[in-house]
Amino acid sequence: MKKNIVQLKNVVKRFRDVTALNNVSVEIPAGQFFSILGPSGCGKTTLLRLIAGFETPDAGEIYLEDQMINNIPPYRRNVNTVFQNYALFPHLNIYENVAFGLKLKGIKREEIGGRVARALDLVGLSGLEKRMPKQLSGGQQQRVALARALVNEPPVLLLDEPLGALDLKLRRQMQIELKSLQKRLGITFIYVTHDQEEALTMSDRIAIMQGGKIEQLGNPSYVYEKPRTEFVANFMGISNLFKGNLRNGNGTVYTLTTPEGLEIRALGEGVRPGGNATVMVRPEKIQISPSRPDGPSKNILHGTIEDVIYLGTVIQFIVRMNDQKLIVLEKNYDRSFELGANQDVFLSWDIDNTFVLTEKPEDEILCVS
User: Fold this and answer.
1) If the chain, 369 residues long, is cut into consecutive pieces of 10 residues, what is the mean pLDDT of each piece?
2) Are strands 324-330 and 287-289 parallel, antiparallel or unpaired?
3) The whole model's pTM is what?
């Protein structure tokens, strides 16, 4: 098991009357690509700035390599930060931009040359040393910012939405390159983003934040497949939610009855039956058919197709059951039968793909990753 390189214990940060971080605790093992994901104002950038030293906590402790760093200034912390706006010096060429930090540290000129060359080679910019930032594309400027951070050989690299200014195609290309680079170097990346796909693509673990708290923490497949709260379920993709009264079956499988009389069986962890609850199933887990399927371990519902939307690799069906609408994504659509609007259909999915949601954030429940 890898040693934790960064640790926050019960950290609180306030800005006047606003609590940006509310008693946050998290451990980040060395060598991980760790993403902090959430909407604007959730506290993710504040958390990053606290690790970097640009802000100080009002309460709690922050550790880097087992040393408490609450009162250590940014320039003495063994971390580097890459910002969304790159923050390159426009009057310096690429070599000078990357070498800037090393010169401040008093590194010998001969060593600087070798380290700059290696950093530029890592990010695929060898041969561009004499160009000015304005002569580079957005993706190349981002690589310069990365090289400038990596040249200091930090054990932890902080990245604050570094791909946010790039177009979609370049952003996806850079996602692959960043992940590959992190694996080759073996250093810890702590990556702030509001882009769910970006976090799922790149991360070893994801902390999903909302309202200054961590709602859920785990690896990408876990937080997507088994969201704990309604916020996580909706933020991490399209969700079909059912609300109603929950009763227990055998201790692990629960049955939810909606006001319309639909009965949905779902798995649950540490939930209490006998009250109002919400259960979830992802659209791609649902099968759609004109005839009723068999299967005692499945949820089966009957409804009417309201709309069919062609999305290239998948077809999206909107199916109505009284006041309840469900979204179905069929990746391997069987064209031996055509389904269209106003057609009656059956929807079915495994009970194992349906989960009872809770409203407790991660720091109030057991984390399972």
Assistant:
1) 89 94 95 95 94 96 95 91 84 93 87 91 88 90 88 91 81 86 92 93 95 95 92 93 86 89 88 86 93 88 93 89 90 67 94 86 40
2) unpaired
3) 0.87
